[in-house]
Design a protein that fits this description.
There is one protein chain. The strands form three sheets. The chain has a seven-stranded mixed beta sheet with strand order 1-2-9-6-5-3-4, sandwiched between helices. The radius of gyration is 20 Å and the shape is globular. The chain has two domains: about 1-170, 3-Layer(aba) Sandwich (Rossmann fold), CATH 3.40.50.1970; about 170-360, Dehydroquinate synthase-like, alpha domain, CATH 1.20.1090.10. It is about 45% helix and about 20% strand. With about 350 residues, the protein is α/β, with parallel strands linked by helices. A hairpin with a 2-residue loop joins β10 (about 330-335) and β11 (about 335-340). The chain binds nicotinamide-adenine-dinucleotide (NAD), ligand LNCXM5UN and zinc ion (ZN). Nicotinamide-adenine-dinucleotide binds next to α4, α5, α6 and α11. This is 3-dehydroquinate synthase. Belongs to the sugar phosphate cyclases superfamily. Dehydroquinate synthase family.
Amino acid sequence: MQTLDVALAERSYPIHIGPDLLSTSLIRERIRGNQVMVVTNETIAPRYLERVTASLGDLQCDTVILPDGEQYKTLATLERIFDALMEKRHSRTTTLVALGGGVVGDMVGFAAACFQRGVDFIQVPTTLLAQVDSSVGGKTAVNHPRGKNMIGAFHQPRSVIIDIRVLDTLPEREFAAGMAEVIKYGLIRDPRFFDWLEQHRSDLQRRDDAALTEAILRSCRNKAEVVAADETEQGNRALLNLGHTFGHAMETFTGYRQWLHGEAVAAGMVMAARMSRELGWLSNDDVARVAGSLSPWGLPVTAPEGMTTADFSDLMALDKKVRNGRLRLVLLKRIGEALVTGEYHPNALTRTLEAFCDKG
Ligand SMILES: NC(=O)c1ccc[n+]([C@@H]2O[C@H](COP(=O)([O-])OP(=O)(O)OC[C@H]3O[C@@H](n4cnc5c(N)ncnc54)[C@H](O)[C@@H]3O)[C@@H](O)[C@H]2O)c1
Ligand SMILES: O=C(O)C(=O)C[C@@H](O)[C@H](O)[C@H](O)COP(=O)(O)O
Ligand SMILES: [Zn+2]
């Protein structure tokens, strides 16, 4: 097992990474009270829920099983968690455990931030995307029909427990979606990791344990460093949003049903790369290299069917990085270095959107 720390003073916490961690005492050790609510979904429950509850010893342990899917990452679904907490008489010293992918993790984190104005929670991520990104950093939220993650809070977990064995049951499409966020770290701040990912693509495609552990570790290290330097996104944390302004627009446009988050981020990162070329920062070869790092995973590099430039503009105007009416975007200075900026000629954005919507 390897352990990293997210250094946030009194809110610091460990990330444990290794095989077969689900049934160890790691979760139990981080629980401070005598009550725990394990929240998961209908797909994950039959596979992993019992293993987790069995590891919790003599605590009062209750469970909630949510419906599966991004379309359920809503305020309405959150109520099921609050109802269960009230029904089972959980108090302020309870701990919520998020057993699942980013959807479960984001909702449980938000429920923990809200219940009695804030209780402990532990992330037990079961998708690659959740292991490398969403379980770390304390961004929690639900979606609004008009915008992604619009209602949420910053609330850090007590610990993150990454059992790489649970990825054995993860479908290919979900695994690839997680790779989009892994590749993101290489693009925004870690060019050596980007090179490494290109060199080890086939090892990762066959889910070789050593390569997978290395990819998860290096991703979590990148995320932990960014979060430790800027917990609430006053500055450089926004770099983790590469591809997301475009991607969130695509997810919202498709009603949170058609495209996976990682797929939308992949297409969004290609858009960001193309816009960076418009601004003279990336070459044609760089853009081809960005797209070429994503497409072998079957990730989309074109816009959803029927989405127009007007759709993009409308939805992107609601992005959380808008400041005083000006849309700020995360763009690439070069492969391995990103910046967030609102200082670009609007034509560069128009040309990027037109090219993307016309022919992809
Ligand atoms: N908070 C953050 O910092 C952050 C970062 C990135 C993404 N996100 C959010 O995360 C969400 C996407 O997360 P995701 O990609 O994990 O999607 P997800 O949570 O929907 O999980 C993907 C699918 O895999 C299934 N699944 C999960 N673990 C499995 C396993 N081990 N075996 C078999 N099936 C399994 C799930 O039931 C689901 O059907 C989005 O809502 C996105 O906005 C948040
Ligand atoms: O942790 C962050 O910060 C991120 O931006 C990570 C993203 O991968 C993630 O999708 C996040 O939920 C996006 O946040 P949002 O503030 O743009 O909704
Ligand atoms: Zn993301």
